[in-house]
Amino acid sequence: MNRFDKRTVIVTGGARGMGANHARGFVAEGANVVIADILEQEGRTLAQELGDQAIFSRLDVTSEEDWAATLAAAEDAFGPVSVLINNAGIARFGVIEETEPAVWRQVIEINLTGSYLGIRAVASSMRKAGGGAIVNTSAGAGMTAAFGLSAYVASKWAVRGLTKTAALELARDNIRVNSIHPGNVSTPMVGGSDAAAVGAGDVRDLAIPRIAEPEEITRLVLFVASDEAGFSTGSEFIADGGQLLGPVPDSSPRE
Hints:
Helices cover 44% and strands 16% of the residues. By secondary structure, it is an alpha/beta fold. Helix 1 (17-28) links the parallel strand 1 (8-12) and strand 2 (32-37). The longest helix has 29 residues, at 101-129.
């Protein structure tokens, strides 16, 4: 399939993890991709791997100047932007009383303000392209609570509201804005083996009792950003293994 043939795509947090997998997925479907990240070495290596259909741009998503430079690089290399994947994000653990205000602000700035700045930066370019699609990465935690993750949860709930408002404001420009809500995904943000073990424990009672692979989230992103989802805007696409359903109760063996 070439659902994104010659379209210009920006993926934030694109140097590794889910973002890198998203970049590969878009290139495989014909897109020209800007890998936008603060991780320069990893980002440039990935761009080299992907060839002429990819470039790297250093982007701190909290910086208006970096957004302007990334947009200019995208347009210079490939033309107006058709797709923005607001993927960059961080999580910091700690109960509210132990979360320093500086940590709270950092999470909000990257996860929420970074998405806002991205939408603000690309809207005019998408108008030049005749329309486009923005996919904001929220989380399953953007629909519920998560102990010890107050800043992360707050930021991901707020991304939902930002998504819906942007969808209304940009509708007449033929720009769709949706959010995706992954559950536990096997990425570097999960951390080391201890965190992975905790994650495995978190999912054992789910309807789908495992951690997702990045490729599974990429397939959802590609769909939401494509014309196949052309009648969806301001919508929430969940891929959480059934986490929001609650745990599957123990059942007796069938006789």
